Amino acid sequence: MSVDEQVLSYPIPNDAALDPPAEWAELRARCPVAHVTLPSGDRATLLTRYEDVKQVLADPRFTRQLNAPDAARLSADGGGVFSSEMATIIPDSGEEHQRWRRLVGKWFTAKRMNAMRPAMIRIAEDLIDDMVKRGAPGDLRAGLGFPLPVYVICDMLGVPAADRDRFSYWSDTLLNLTRYGKAEIEAAQAEFFQYMSDLVAGKRADPGDDLLSELITAGGPEDGGLSDIQILVTGMALLVAGHETTANMIGKLVSMLLADRSRWERLLADPSLIRTTVEESLRFDANSGFGLPRYLNAETEVSGAVLPRGTTVVCSMAAANRDETAFENAGEMDLTRSPNPHLAFGSGAHSCLGQALARTELQVVLEVLLRRLPTLELAVPVEELERVEGLAVGGLREVPVRW
Amino acid sequence: MKVIVDEAKCCGAGQCVLIAPEVFDQRDEDGIVVLLEPEPAEDQHTAVREAAAVCPAAAIQLEGDDA
């Protein structure tokens, strides 16, 4: 049966850790606006073409109001991060959203990220030292991929990195769409909320030199700042966003390069390709997760199909990033590809706030790994790499390496 | 080549600064683009074209025969 005659289950089951499911090419070619069933049993509309995904993500009629009464639920026990309180407290559109974005965005400028480079390099060096001390083979995910972004975001927010195991669990309950029950998710969110409330109260009494303290001292909405609840939820959102996304991407970046070791060798010979390699790995990542859901609040048309008001759309940026009409030889990983207008960070006014941070972290990790562990290789055949299941952000369970 | 930036569209992603730091910067107070060089020298053109092509908010326009 072809893809346009059936309702696909979404996410599309796929055992290959690094390769895309066969359905993507067929969907893009023959069924760019596809009906899918989500883990909750609710129906949604899946977009896989580059132009469609790019246009929809930048179109304000496609909102993030996934808690609307007729919006599709992503999973039976709620929508995780997409329909949590975070989505409603941080302004979704218009001037309010732009004000929030600019207040927080100034912490994520390219200049600030460049200034953080030396500190990131030190963290990466220390983590690699520890890995080397423990001896090969080692798990690059647990040893480097996960801890590095956590240390960096904790430092930016002024949150003690010693509590990182708790954040990890809270993040997971928000980002995992299938693993936890409703009661467990609610309890974890309540704990997380309480933790952040206490932290924000502490910073109000004794501000430090960090993002949360500065949001607090900027004053409330009447002074052009944010309300207490907005500061708190912003802290939660940044901690979750700064956690799993880059952490998983580090493992996938290294795995993609080592899966065909000529890629790694090319970088050893020419480290000036690090920047374009990072961009290409973001484009080429076939395991980037769920995609971005949007709720349509006015009837519109996409690729010739009419979408009624109330439709829940899922944008697959990963499928769009393999669209041959947008990228020449889209199925090839080209470390020199430029320009590379991939959609891994979304597009438009809501495109990832932390993208300069993610880029810098990925570049630093690659630079330090190439220098410190040039003999790095996968310690298992690539077929044995396993995906993390159910996570809104795709990743690998382990990345076993030796050097 | 003439570069035009749209501050209202800019989402502060910082790609232009990472790619062409001699032509683009971001304001410290809100991360919005600052155009340092509206008519960049020829050795900057490749980087500027790349910055315009990858801007997630499509906030960079190029004009001129060599755009």
From TrEMBL, chain A:
Q: Does the keyword Translocase apply?
A: no
Keywords recorded for this protein, A-Z: Heme, Iron, Metal-binding, Monooxygenase, Oxidoreductase
| Molecular function via GO | heme binding; iron ion binding; monooxygenase activity; oxidoreductase activity, acting on paired donors, with incorporation or reduction of molecular oxygen
Signal peptide segment: none
Can you tell which superkingdom this protein's organism belongs to?
Bacteria
Record-linked CDD domains:
Cyp158A-like
Instruction: Give the InterPro entries listed for this entry.
Output: Cyt_P450 (IPR001128), Cyt_P450_B (IPR002397), Cyt_P450_CS (IPR017972), Cyt_P450_sf (IPR036396)
Say yes or no: keyword DNA-binding present: no
Essential cofactor(s): heme
State one Pfam family annotation: p450
Homology family: Belongs to the cytochrome P450 family.
Q: Which PANTHER family match?
A: CYTOCHROME P450 BJ-1, P450, PUTATIVE (EUROFUNG)-RELATED
Q: What is this protein called?
A: Cytochrome P450
- Lineage of this protein's species? Bacteria, Bacillati, Actinomycetota, Actinomycetes, Streptosporangiales
Automatic annotation (TrEMBL), chain B:
Keywords from the named record: 3Fe-4S, Electron transport, Iron, Iron-sulfur, Metal-binding, Transport
InterPro entries xrefs: 3Fe4S_ferredoxin, 4Fe4S_Fe-S-bd, Fe-S_cluster_ET
| Domain of life of the native organism | Bacteria
Q: Which residues form the 4Fe-4S ferredoxin-type domain?
A: 1-29
Entry GO MF terms: 3 iron, 4 sulfur cluster binding; electron transfer activity; iron ion binding
Q: Which cofactor(s) does the record list?
A: [3Fe-4S] cluster
* Functional description taken from the UniProt entry: Ferredoxins are iron-sulfur proteins that transfer electrons in a wide variety of metabolic reactions.
Q: What is this protein called?
A: Ferredoxin
The source organism is: Microbispora catharanthi
Q: What is the lineage of its organism?
A: Bacteria, Bacillati, Actinomycetota, Actinomycetes, Streptosporangiales
